[in-house]
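TEACHING EXERCISE
Course module: macromolecular assemblies
Task: Read the component lines below, then compare them to the predicted structure of the full complex.
Student: A.B.
Group: 4
Components provided:
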Amino acid sequence: MSVAPGFYLVLAGLMFAIGVVGVLVRRNAIVIFMFVELMLNAVNLIFVTFARQQGTVDGQVLVFFVLVVAAAEVVVGLGIISLIFRYRVSSNVDEINLLKR
Amino acid sequence: MNLEVVIFGVMFVVALGCSLAMLFAPNAVHVALFLVGAQMALALAFLLQGAFFVAAIQIIVYAGAIMVLFLFVIMLLGIDLRESLIEPLTGQRGVALGLGAVLAVGLVFVGVQGADLAAGGGDGAAALTELNQGPGNVKALARALFSRYLLPFEVTSILLVVAMVGVMVLARRISAVENDRRAGVPAAEEEAA
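Instructor-supplied answer key:
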């Protein structure tokens, strides 16, 4: 008797919700990025769970694409953050308001 | 007591505990470490579900490469460790927590219902076990990736090249001479010639 897929889906749902709350609540740009990673991880868990349920590896292949997109996103995002930090000496998203002026 | 259920229980508690700890850890480095913990737990979840290669990739690429990049940038910038408690929008944090709780309840509900719905399509777990034993997990993945998913695979290579070039453009520091040249100020040696 193995663990039912529903439990994995519940865990993924909770982790995704925590990721959303983290993005909304935290102020440090790098920390916000880490919560985005948490959300992507939760989605990966859903992919793998449904792959097992369907009995194919298609869901696991999709995890690869999520991984590539996450890597590209992190590289570009951290580049932008370090560029902003060079000019504003802060990674607080409340202080990045150049477009408002 | 079934061993798989015990491992799942430990994984569940560690993954959820690390995610919650991320939310309340004030220090960016601690948040990164808790994220690594959550990712390790998820790798365990992938192993439990027969996704062996994905579990290895999860640890090598996510917990290894990507998190090292995060920690590198945190250390490089010497991020101000204290979290700002100023709210530009009044009550934004409370509303965010409330809506997050609503989202969590909704997703848990959908998870429970969705599991029941999808379970009608025969015993997929047995089929995947057979696939993992027949050609093997890595071979089965490679066959799917390089036949049905060949076009997305090639598109991701374009994505990686674009991201790499973009970061190089972003990270390049423009020298003062180059800045003058772009602004139309003639350089000294050009005037002489």
